[in-house]
Amino acid sequence: HNQYDSARSETYNTVTYNGQFIFLNLSYSSLIVRGFLSTDTVNVANLNVKNQTFAEVVDISNEHLFDRYEQELDGLLGLSYSNISVGGITPVFDNIIEQGLVSSRIFSFYLNRDTSADLGGTLILGGSDPTYYEGDFTYIPVTRKGYWQITIDRIKMTSEDLCEESCQVVVDTGSSLITGPELDIARLIHLLELMNIKQNYLKVDCNRIFQLPTIRFIMGGKAFDLTGKDYIIRHPNHESICTSIFFTYDSYNSEIKWILGMPFIGRYYTEFDMERDRVGFALAK
Q1: What is the per-residue pLDDT across 107-129, written as a single tens digit (0 to 9) for each?
Q2: CB 160, CB 191: distance < 8 Å
């Protein structure tokens, strides 16, 4: 890992309470990290964010789960609303805005679906870049601030409808999957004729990818289509094995039913707008 060394920084400040370091236990997905708070200048995209408080991690549970990634991760950068920030710490993007480093409370993501390309994707702070999308954005209002929570009107596939009376979804750049309720995912498995060879591991014949039906996510009155090549991927270590990106979501929050992760964002360039509390989608190039 690339590691932060406060002893080498002239702008480092300790964060203490009654003379003691402040330790935090943070949960993220299946990981629990333990660390203590520090403050320093953080450089993101050549922007120097002054007096940014962050956690220096000293222990990670289930660290072996990072093995699923082809490169090591050195840290996590949260981009949700500040009202769910652990310990009331001001998030990086909020400080970027407060310090006038960008003019707009908007950030956006382009994720390249071509795994052989040099550019894996781009995070744009302060707006969007039409180089990476085509057409206009369709904007969906945020229904509850915290996570980027919006409404799906319906999910359609051939003759079947899921989420028939609308449901709540979180758009999450930190998820590599599209997840939903157990019953809905079971219906998808049946309709797509996927082979559930072990828990949440859905295999499909790679030759069937282009024969699989289109799945339509209806949001804001517009259909956002995913085809077989969007929701079936080749195993990174076994090119002959194809798996689905649909998994069951065991929600601790009964209101949130689905999570739209990277497979959806890869297909649709995504803009997160804190000024107007909305999420915009446009077809990615």
Answers
A1: 999 999 887 888 989 999 999 99
A2: yes
Using one digit for the tens of pLDDT, what is the confidence trace for 215-270? 999 999 999 999 999 999 887 677 778 889 998 877 666 889 999 999 999 999 99
The superfamily (CATH) of domain 128-284 is Acid Proteases (2.40.70.10)
The predicted model scores a pTM of 0.91
- The three-state DSSP-derived secondary structure of 191-221 is HHCCEEEECCEEEECHHHHHHCCCEEEEECC
Q: What is the largest CA-CA distance in the chain?
A: 64
CA atoms of 217 and 230, how far apart (whole Å): 13
The residue ranges of every structural domain in the chain are 6-98, 128-284
Name the CATH code of domain 6-98 (choices 2.40.70.10, 3.40.920.10, 1.10.700.10, 3.30.1330.40). Answer: 2.40.70.10
Secondary structure in 3-state letters for the chain: CCCCCHHHCCCCEECEECCEECEEEEEECCEEEEEEEEEEEEEECCEEEEEEEEEEEEEECCHHHHHHCCCCCCCCCCCCCHHHCHHHCCCHHHHHHHCCCCCCCEEEEEECCCCCCCCCEEEEECCCCHHHEEEEEEEEECCECCCCEEEECEEEECCEEECCCCEEEEECCCCCCEEECHHHHHHHHHHHCCEEEECCEEEECHHHHHHCCCEEEEECCEEEEECHHHHEEEECCEEEEEEECEEECCCCCCCEEEEECHHHHHHEEEEEECCCCEEEEEEEC
Q: How far, in Å, CA of 44 to CA of 33, rounded?
A: 22
pLDDT at position 166 over 90: yes
Q: Which two tokens stand for residue 35?
A: 């660390």
